[in-house]
Automatic annotation (TrEMBL):
Protein name as catalogued: Peptide ABC transporter ATPase
SMART domains assigned: AAA
Taxonomy of the source species: Bacteria, Bacillati, Bacillota, Bacilli, Bacillales
Keywords: ATP-binding, Nucleotide-binding, Transport
Keyword Transport: yes
Length: 316
């Protein structure tokens, strides 16, 4: 049940396939009801692709994706539409995803229409309630996206995602574009909404600092592969994978003089179209051994709930 998504690279006048980008390469994980699973990694590691595969906005090359008891990839268009109601995306840049010519009311009404709420009064009532739920006011319904601050726009993006009463929210870097002071407000809002509506989150971010306080578990990705997955606490206290360790040491620490176990990441991130053989991280890993250059480490559970893909651990 490992998910793959390879993007073809074509070249030449015949447009023949000359290579593949393994955006997601044999990744397998579960998300539990009511939890927040953080997905972290540098840009191009495949974390956003995973979000789109789950919603079937892109088709996986291989593997199985299940939502509750349903195989997402086997659904008819009709069932897919129904299930999309239950899974919604929150984007990094709400401005880019909010139609500038539509008033907020229309923006929030659209998902209700798509999902068959026919009664105009009912739609309006739900829109007004949702505006208040996300910390905006009823009169904001009459305004256009450009009349809001970045943080308010993200509240509109969140409101839109919640209009259809989803169960799963995939938040793709929802606070990366916001000022630090606004970030925590939006993170707190997401936490409150999770409790209120019994939501499950997949929270995508490029640094571990942001996901720390919101995630129950965190998966670390590198070049399309998941390299470590465990409880949030354990990941920060006992990271095992050398890549996780280097990501953690680049998170600002309260005492900048304490560089005792700093392992700052060096070297360029290799291209996903030509990932290193063996362990994809071996070109940047300080603990690289001979075996790492030829053999890909399997992603295995080395203690209960702690998965890691590295030849330093387990019975590789
Ligand atoms: Fe480093 Fe080898 Fe582990 Fe890869 S498998 S992270 S190269 S020690
Ligand atoms: Mg992305």
């Amino acid at each position: 049940n490992q998910i793959k998504k390879y993007f073809p690279i074509t070249g030449g006048i015949l447009g023949r396939k000359v290579g593949e980008v393994k955006a997601v390469d044999r990744v397998s994980f579960a998300v539990y009801k009511g939890e927040t699973l953080g997905l972290v990694g540098e840009s191009g590691c495949g974390k956003s692709t995973i979000g789109r595969l789950l919603l079937r906005l892109q088709e996986a090359t291989d593997g199985e994706i299940r939502f509750e008891d349903k195989d997402i990839q086997a659904l008819s268009p009709k069932l897919l539409k129904k299930i999309r109601k239950e899974m919604q995306l929150v984007f990094q840049d709400p401005y880019a995803s909010l139609n500038p010519r539509h008033k907020v009311e229309k923006i929030l009404e659209e998902p209700l229409i798509v999902h068959g709420i026919k009664d105009k009064k009912e739609r309006r009532e739900r829109i007004m309630n949702m505006l208040e739920t996300v910390g905006l006011d009823r009169y904001h319904a009459e305004r256009y996206p450009h009349q809001f601050s970045g943080g308010q726009r993200q509240r509109i993006g969140i409101a839109r995602a919640l209009m259809t009463n989803p169960k799963l929210i995939i938040a793709d870097e929802p606070v990366s574009a916001l000022d630090v002071s606004i970030q925590s407000q939006v993170l707190n809002l997401l936490k409150d909404l999770q409790a209120e509506f019994d939501l499950t989150y997949i929270f995508i971010a490029h640094d571990l600092g942001v996901v720390r306080h919101i995630s129950d578990r965190v998966g670390v990705m590198y070049l399309g592969r998941m390299v470590e997955l465990t409880d949030s606490e354990r990941l920060y206290e006992e990271p095992l994978h050398p890549y996780t360790k280097s990501l953690l040491s680049s998170v600002p620490v309260p005492d900048p003089d304490d560089q005792s176990d700093s392992e700052v990441l060096t070297g360029e991130i290799p291209s996903a179209s030509n990932p290193p053989k063996g362990c994809a991280f071996h070109t940047r890993c300080k603990e690289c051994m001979d075996v790492c250059k030829t053999s890909r480490p399997t992603f295995q559970e080395i203690s209960p709930g702690h998965h890691v893909a590295c030849h330093l651990y387990g019975d590789a």
